[in-house]
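Q: Predict the assembly, please.
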Amino acid sequence: MTLVIFFLPLFLLLYVLCVGRKLGSSGSIFLACFVSLVQMVAAFFLYVECFVLKATLTYELRLFTIFDGYDFVFSLLVDRLTASMIFIVTIISFCVQIYSIEYLKDDPHRTRFHLYLHLFTFFMLMLVLSPNYFQLFLGWEGVGLTSYLLINFWYTRTQANKSGLKALFINRIGDFFYMFALFICLIEFRTTDFTLIVTALKNEHLQHIDFSAQVICVFFIIAAVAKSAQFGLHTWLPDAMEGPTPVSALIHAATMVTAGVFLLLRVAPILAIYPIPSIILVYVGSFTAFFAATTAACQFDLKKVIAYSTCSQLGYMMASIGVGGYDTCLYHLVNHAFFKALLFLTAGIVIHAVSNEQDLRFYGGLIRLLPYCYILMLVGSLGLTGFPFISGYYSKDNLLEIVLVSGSYPMCYMLLVLTAAVTAFYSVRTIYLVFAETPRFPLSSTKHLTDGEVLFLFPTGFLFFMTMFHGFIVKDMYTGLGSTLYPELPYSLNMPGEFGLTTGDKLIPLIFSFLGALISMILYYDLAKYGLIKRTSLKILTIFRFFNKRWWFDYLDTFSFRTALRGSYNFFSSVEKGHNESISSNIVSQTLQTIGNKFMLTFQNGFLHVFLTYIVLFFALIVAYKLNDPTLIPIFYAYRVSKKNRK
Amino acid sequence: MVQQMLTLSSLIIAVTIFSLMFVRQTVISVFVAIELNLLSVALGLTSTSFYLDYIEPQINSINVICFAAAESALGLALLVQFYRAKGRVDYYFSNILKR
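A: Predicted assembly structure:
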């Protein structure tokens, strides 16, 4: 089953590369979707086997062996974490494949698009199926590459090119830290296997590598921060929205950005031993959650709002890993994948319907025109907000309870609860701006206004179902009694989170969410009454601009990058090229040029009379010297008079 | 006699050179100064020829006068063209090529 899931995309790619021109565009795409379907069905069986029934499978493929001294064989590992990841990857991949048939109907390169999606699925499966950090790194790089290829799918657009490169470069920072961590692993443990490292750390004779282990943790955290777009390295994620919307749904919401979280879930047994990396993680995660939510609340681009909300939700997951709620983190990850993919796919339908308009200020009144989209968006947003009994509610409340019950991070808990309020705020705001009131888009852009395409209906409907019921169905499988991811860890926060809190404490996030939604409703009802842009005071406008411009972080980012590049250039030109060259070529020539410009040009200005004056002057000097005759001196006075005359 | 002639010649040379240096209102004045310079040189050569009773300086002076005549013809033609182009013959506006 695992081998079918893992190798089918690869075989499909090879097959289509070889005989794709016989199949044609439609044939290739049909084959791609069929392979996705097979993968999904197989993944469901694997899910039952490995997640529900808690089997752990290991495949040692021995395809190739490298690292002579390090005993590395190509192998696959399926445990509960992997099974649940494969489940969401294949399901969302299948939905996106079906969706893309309709979405890229008229695109000449749609075959390439579908194959890229399959390439992505292959690398993602390699990432989640790896039993060691090295093989995980192969998948890690692969998904980065396919992310670039898919953001840059419409490669003739400058903005898409820029965004793709930005994503690649910022991820490169994380990749470097990943590699450093990998090297330290190899040096200290002589292996990169997940279980072996944890076993080694528990050994009493190996206590001296505590420091290295903490460094590894911190480096993996930085790698995850880059991949999961946490604060500091988050700037690529909103820009990645330049890619096609199905890509945003599959890669930048559901699966690839959660690769960072997945990595940290793999590192979790090490994180559980050392407190410092976990503390860093909690603060980074909760701050990112708050930052991204407030930014999303003031954005005008529909896709960027959803992108920032992804950022924010990933912050939740990070914080949850930091406090030790690994099961809850995975639970939230899976739920989030479903409702965020739903939101993105719905946003794609809406964007298509109004002729590729993405600005929230140019929507409005779509509730009568796209009622199906309204239902989907509403349910997705409610899931995101944590409305009771929709999937987001279970995972998000569980997560917040765990942060509260861990007891050490009251500030982070407050930030996360505030984030829940802001999340409700921007969800309601988005729905209000897109669907309520009267239309603000021109009539000419309503040519393709429909949400009734069958190929749109099926995947979104499926995700709708998952968003509605998945959270409730699988709650106990993820966070219930005796179903922790790491039973060997000394403690679990699930039971205290479930039973150790009063009802009042449990209701806090819900109350805050309703409050945020209420504020949004009041505010936007008011604003809509006065027209969207109401005259506000300068102070409010300043605050709004602060959030709208992403806390000025992009400017800081650009400034620091530019400074670094210029500094490195100066360093290169002064040190790397050598001092001699800089002195001889720059300083001497510049000095001579300055002298020439400032000094010589006053004498050699090209006028005949000036040259004539010099001739007479020096002739007179020579004569005066030869004859010792002072009567010739008046000629000097004549020269001075000539200078006066000239002026 | 020849001493006075040579003194006159060198004085005229000095006057022309100083006029070249100081009197630069128009191109014509520069032009006149150059002509006068060459003529005074011819005068000096001629007087030397009389003093030495030797023919070569006279030939040289005729040579110089010939060159001066040719140069004045060319120069006047250029000056006329210059006037047509610029509408004036001012010295300080004559640096067309420089701009």
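The first helix of chain A runs from residue 2 to 52. DSSP finds 25 helices and two strands in chain A.
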